[in-house]
Structures are given as C-alpha cells and as structure tokens.
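1st attempt posting a full record on here, be nice pls
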Amino acid sequence: MLGSSCRWFRDVILEENSVWKYACLRDLQIPPFRQQVSFKWIHLYVSAFDGSHSYLFRQQDKHIDWMRIGAFFFDSSIGLLTEKIPLLQRLPRGVSVEKMLQTTGTCILDNIKTGIWIADLQVVHCPVCNLKTCEGTMQTLDARHVELFLTEGYKNGSWDYKEIGSHQIRTPSDGAIGVILDIKHLRDRATTEVLDLKKWKAKPSDWHPRARISCHGVAVNTNLQENDGLHVTYHAMRAGDADDCEVVSIRISQQLL
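the predicted structure (as tokens):
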C-alpha cells in the first residue's frame, strides 16, 4: 500500500537489500547473512511468512497442526540428526546410517545445502508413516532450506522425501525429542544451551511441545503419557534423484508404539 502511494515509495519498497533482506532476517530472527541467494529477498520473505508449510503442498489430508520454531544456519554441509539428549561423547565411524541409528539413535547426514534453514513442528496422522496399526498422531520436526518452496523441482513434485533410516525405542519414553545440528558448531556455547534439555523442557504434566533454536541448530521435545516406546523415522529430500544431490529438507518423525 505504501509502494502504491508514489513512485519514490515504490522504488524504496522494492529495494532488495535495504528493505526485504533486512525484513527477512529480522523476522526470522537471525544475524546478518552474507551468502548469496538464488531468489529475490521479497520472494523469500513471502514464502517464509505466508503461512505455507511442507504438508500444505503435499499430504494436506494427513496434516493436523503445526507451529513455527524459527530459523538457523547450516555453515557446513554436514548435519547431526538425533532423538537423544544428551548426545554421546563419541559416535561410531565407518558404519551405515541404519546401524548408527540402532546403536546410538543418531546419524550423520552429509551434502546438506548451506544457508538459512527454517524449522517447523508438525503434527500429522500416523498413516503418513509405515506402521498401519497405529490410529493416532505423530510428531515431525520439519526443517527446510529457505529457498525450497521457490524451486521448480519442489513445486512440480519431482523432488520428494526418502527415508534414510528408522529404529524403534522399545522402552517407555518420557518425551519425543528431535534434534538437527550443524556438526561444525556442535561445541558452540549456543548449541550446548539447545542440548541442555532441563532448562527448556515443559513440566511433566504439560503436554504442549517445547522447542529451542540457536544459530546452528534446533531441538524439540514433547512430554508423553504412558507408552511402550517410540518408532523414529528420518527422511531427507534432495535436489534431484541422485544420492549425491544436495539435501534441501529434513524430517525426524516420532510415533508411539
């Protein structure tokens, strides 16, 4: 509306770096960002704040509710995905993702697209997963590169999520935890605060989800009622069909057994 009032205001409003880049970084609550982006900041702003989420594009009938957690950076191309806090001091090397998940509840994902990532918490119907006997809901920590919704491969449906691993926790769980971290910043003070679950998790009688985000990672926790354990599934979307294509979106889903 301001841009339509006169030519001068129109030129100001459409100025990329002084208006829309600033507005995007401000509203995502992240520090100054120097990396080049492939789309105009005004379009990135709209795709981040128009109420869109990944289940809105596909599987909308499976979706129940969601909340925006925030945004973080991937400086490196290697991420750590886990459903455990605290983390193990040492992770096994030279083993498959499936083996690492079974033994540690954690996996390492490489070739992740660097830049700004947006994290949402999704609640969806269990039939989205592979356990057809469950009639309840499941929690999904959903993170995507800020440019994802503007890319042609995503819009035309040629990019899709593929399961990279899963495992079952066959003991009662107090909470459903999902964590995505840039492994380069694993020892940062801000990351340590994200992993300090006692400081931000909800009280035992509070069933509302809680989340914590830092410059280089995100974590979410939801307290659970009495259960027999969890089924945890990890998905990744790549910018193409080949296994060496960049990862542009990640999901950690958890459902009660």
